[in-house]
Each structure stands twice: as structure tokens, then as C-alpha cells.
Amino acid sequence: MTATVTSGDVRTAQVGARPNWSASSILTQVQVLSGRSLRTLVRDPRLVILSLIQPLVLLILFGQVFSSIAKTPGFPQGIGYIDFILPALLVTTALTSGLQSGVAVTTELRNGLIARFRSMPISTGSVLLARSVADVCRSFVELSVMALVAALLFGFAPPGGITGVLGSLAVAAVVCWSLGWVFMAFASWLRQPEILQTIGSLVTFPLMFASKAFVPISGLPDWLQGFATINPLSHAIEAARGMAMGKPDLTVLATAVGGCLLIALVFAPLALRSFRRP
């Protein structure tokens, strides 16, 4: 016996059938998710203002309060302190921006947003990658504003010109991107913003102050000079400073960028593994 299916039955079957949704590409997922993060930042003026205040406070504090360091023996001749310090501030501010990536991940894990993403056909790797892209874009804007304010108000005019400043910004962006994976790995593992911020402070302050950022390395105590020499942040600062001064050292630049890539290659898989944990 052959069953007869009427057109009404066909329409009913078509209406009741569940559509076979297919996941979008990783590139599309990253584009949409990073755009969402950036729109969230722009829609809240308080977040925009607060994200710009900290770099400007650092600029005023270190660029003006410690400007007398330029008169001490051992300071490079013919270089203003603002030209010396700003490339370092770009890199150290990028370090704190990387910490903010981890804090954002813990916040989204706790408020249920990540649980909603997991119910969608979205790759978990896309969520972290989009967070990394969005935070690098945000950090680049913040650092660009810092450099612009330094030029307009404090006479920042390095010998490398605009090209050198853009090179310094690029180095800082790479630092932000690589260290963001470090803090996202800790965030996915700990899932507690308070603990993450404590660990972040313990990591960032020694890296910042025991480096070549604020004074020439010869001005540090002997026991700190050795650490400052091997400090990975010192290599990034030296690379950014060389770009701004119009005297880029390709060896230092390759060491800084290579170190950042190595950090990302180590911590990105760790972040993804911990992030996939329920």
C-alpha cells in the first residue's frame, strides 16, 4: 500500500521541521564578537572616560614629576625626559591593558554571558580571540590619545617623528596582545576577578619598575640591573624607544616581538583549555 501525502501535509511537515543551522566561519565569529565588545565600551561613556584617565595620569605623574631625572649623570644627552619616558609608558600601559582582558573574561564567566555563548554554534576559541582583538583595538586608541596629549601639552617630539611613534604604538600593541593571553589563561583557570587582580599587581609592578622604563639602567641598584637586563618588558621598552628616537635596533626589535609571540604560543592553548572547562 502506498501512502498519499497531500500538499497540506507537506506544508505542515515543512513548518514543523527544525532548520539545520550551520556555524559561521571563525573569522565571522571573531568579527561579530569583537564588534560587540567594542560597542559595549563605546555605548557607556563612563568606560571610555575611565579607560583614558589612567594613561593620562601616568603621563602627568612620570612625565612631569620625575622630569628632573633628565639632569642626572648617565641620562642620554640631547633627549628630553618626555621623549625618553613616553615610549616606556606606552608599553607599561599596554601591560595593564592585558590585565584588563583577563578581568573582562572573569566578569563574562560570572554574569552568564559565556554560558549563553556555549549554547550557540560558536567556537570557544572565537570568544577569547575576539576578546583579544577588541582589547588590542581599545588599547591602541588609548595609547594614541596618550601620545597626542603628550605632543600637544608636554612637547613630545621624538626624533623618529610620526613614523617612529607609530612604530612604538605597534610594539605596545603586540605587548598588549601577548600578555592578554597570559591574563586570560589565569582568568579562565581562577575565575575570580579579585584573585586575578592581586596576581596581576604582583606581576605588573616588578616588571614595570625593575626595567629600563623610568631611568637608565645604570641608575638602578646593582642587584636590580641584572633583573632589568633580562626583564622581557625591558626589551619591548628598548624597542619602542629606539623606534621613537629614529634609531631602531632590529636585533632588539626581533627579540621583543619574538618574545611576545613565544608568550602567546605558550599561554593561548592554556587559556583555551581552561576556558573550555565547565
Automatic annotation (TrEMBL):
This is Transport permease protein. Residues 46-278 form the ABC transmembrane type-2 domain. InterPro entries: ABC2_TM, ABC2_TM_bact-type, ABC_2_transport, Nod_factor_ABC_transporter. It is a multi-pass membrane protein. It is found in: Cell membrane; Membrane. Keywords: Antibiotic resistance, Cell membrane, Membrane, Transmembrane, Transmembrane helix, Transport. One of its GO terms (molecular function) is ABC-type transporter activity. Pfam families: ABC2_membrane (PF01061). The lineage of its organism: Bacteria, Bacillati, Actinomycetota, Actinomycetes, Pseudonocardiales. One of its GO terms (biological process) is response to antibiotic. The keyword Disulfide bond does not apply. It comes from the Bacteria. Its main location: membrane.
